[in-house]
Automatic annotation (TrEMBL):
Keywords assigned by UniProt, alphabetized: Cell membrane, Ion channel, Ion transport, Membrane, Metal-binding, Sodium, Transmembrane, Transmembrane helix, Transport
Protein name: Fluoride-specific ion channel FluC
GO molecular function, one term: fluoride channel activity
Keyword field contains Ion transport: yes
Amino acid sequence: MGYLYIFVGGALGALIRYMLSFLPLWHGLPIGTFLANMFGAFFMGFLSTYSLRFLETHTYLKKGITTGCLGALTTFSTFQFEVFTFISINAWFTGFLYLTLSSLLGIVCCILGLKLGDDVS
């Protein structure tokens, strides 16, 4: 039964990720991948705390949301490829900026999600 939840969550996450891919570049940065990873980091933090109380009896639903939806939504491999692409065209500053912003803001988003999830629950 858990596989079905992960499958449906994964389909939803992949669809959201696909829709974000249509966002235009922002100052040369791939904003769709960036937003997908920031949303994923925030909601992983939020759900990790929030689900401790409200989803503990619905483990399949939690796996469907975290492993399925957020796993398909976030795009670490795409992120790595985009950083490599910047480096390969000698856009070192843009690549470093994208790498730094994504990494640091991803951690901040996760922390905010954890704190908000703890406050809500």
